[in-house]
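Hi all, long-time lurker, first post. I run a small reading group and we've been trying to get comfortable going from sequence to structure in the token notation. Rather than ask abstract questions, I figured I'd post a concrete chain and ask someone more experienced to write out its structure so we can walk through it together at our next meeting. Sequence below, copied exactly:
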Amino acid sequence: MAYIIPEYRKNLSSYRYSGVDKSLVSRYVLSKYWSWLITLFPLSVAPNLITLSGLVCVLINMVTLFYYSPDLGPCPRWVHLTFALGLWIYQSLDAIDGKQARRTGTSGPLGELFDHGNQFIGHATYPLKPKRDLIYIYPCGYYLRLRRIEHNARVPACLLIACPWSVMVHSVGPILRLILSANLNQCLGLANFYLSTWEEYHTGTLYLSYFSGPVEGILIIIAVHIISGIYGAEFWLQPMGDIAILPAIVADALPPFIAEIQLNKVSLASGALGLSANIIAASFNVYRAALANKRPIFPALSGLIPFFSSSAIAYLWLISSPSIVTKHLIPFALYIGCSFGYQVGLIILAHVTKAPFPFMNLMMVPLIVGCVNANLPVIAGIQPFFTGDKEAPFLWAAFAFSLAYYLHFSISVINDLCDYFDINCLTIKHKKQENGDSNKSDEKKNM
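-- Answer (accepted) --
Happy to help. Here is the structure in token form:
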């Protein structure tokens, strides 16, 4: 199966990466560190190998977590410190792979596709498990105090990015509140990644705002891990006014309603605000690009339909089948992650080949089937074909299908690009020419 449309294949040769990084942390703090770090890598090391090495650190973190906490309960404090180290290495390597590509003259579409694919996997968050009346979120070590939930629920942290949403639905039952929080925050978290890719497709430029996930977002998570490793994850249950490391004069000056807010809610709300700002900025940049190029804005905005329609379908499925939240949300979240990763990959591929925006996504078929099945009592007045524990095999099958399809897509596109440019993915096949361009790229430009 060919994922690159033949008539747009020739556009690969004219692709040029464009990026804008407004991060003050990157510009004034980390840039010198990254410039030094890149000198440690010889020119024989492929940029994609650096990217993959960073991802391996994240995967090692996950293996460590599951080894010491197979039930996703509390883990040793030092595990948090290893997470901080792993994320720091991941961020560092992710930041310099582009520099290595320019040093070696291997910049191109494959690098962007490979980098974005690894970023999506690297930014995937992890499961959590309630214990008593607390929900432990890993790997960040947050605690969310909710009403006691008697179900043995496992809820992926990617669906609970900003739990202050739960305040909006506090009057409903705990499970319904959890479902609403999960879906709203799933939209918020995935929207940041989806919209940045959608923005790059329509503007031709990857924008990193003053607060971005790859820089400030990861640094915040690293700081959370370090604090959790030193003081324990229970540190995040403290009200702001009771923080021992906060100067007394500052704690006394806090208004009562602020002093009583738990740290976990403050940190999560801050992350939600940052993500929301990125979403607004992406939409504005697309609108501005459409005006500058004298293109109608509504066709560009229609690219948001796949994301929001899929999120709405996921919500309808969750609200009609609460057992997913209480028992089977891990395979559900893994399936959703692969599906959205595939959709983002299609958008990036369309961007580098200048192909039409991809609206259709075969991976959403299990999502539609599951939603329709769960809502059969409303749609047709009949009982669902599978519910409760019988839904688990379907969810795991959906995840297996999406993972296999995503891997097939990734391997096929990598092989196609390697054949087209006569390059290797993880090694450098052609040395950099004096003019800075790879020889095969020059040949392709003239074809």
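A couple of things your group might point at:
The chain has a mean pLDDT of 78.
The chain has one domain: 25-199+208-445.
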